[in-house]
Amino acid sequence: MNIIKRNNVIIKGKGNKTIMFAHGFGCDQNMWRYIYPDFEQDYKIILFDHVGAGHSDLSAYCFTKYDSLEGYASDIIEIATELNITNGIFIGHSVSAMIGLIVADLAPNVFETLIMIGPSPYYINEDNYIGGFSRSEIEELLESMNNNHLGWSMTMAPIIMGNPDKKKLSVELASSFCKTDPEIAKHFAKTTFLTDKREMLKHTKASVLILQCSNDIIAPVEVGYYMHQQIPNSILRIMKATGHCPNLSAPQETIEMIRTFLNI
What we know:
By secondary structure, the protein is of the alpha/beta class. 42% of the residues lie in helices and 17% in strands.
């Protein structure tokens, strides 16, 4: 299988060191269009679509493989192997932040730095852990999506985006949700919202930046603080940005925080 075609891999930039950008649930690589150009002069840029998203090869989608985040991580490792990426930088939004964490565990030589935007290792409140949702709320979310994917997309997009003054971004996110094959979207949602990767955090050896929006319904600030406490070599930055997609709603702040972390 042509890995580059499968994941619609796009290569840009001039640098010797590589930054790979990974989009979140219901999105595609277009979600990075305000971010990656700022790094093209200094880095080799890798953009891609997870299988099932954007312009990836939908025929490559396997419900068994993508029943866990490890399936997505294996794709990234294959891309990195194909492109000879070592000691690179991985920038992951939302669920892709955790996929990057899995990659760093399975193939530690691929990425030495992880930048996580709006990450969450587990979305469900449990004992003293605050994930943001009760189990029943997650079950209701998944059931609503299963019953009416289009209606769910239109309702959830503005809530997830969280910037009511920027309606165009909510419309764009809803459109992105709606373009995704409903069966694939439902499956990816279930994999995303029911996965618990809290145990992995303390074993992470990569250098990690956690970018946490100040008001994010999907990944509340408590999650950011929890991850920072658990990941040994991590830095937490609480952003002025609100919502779950600062790569779209607050690109300049996102760029500045990444650049400060990378010392460029």
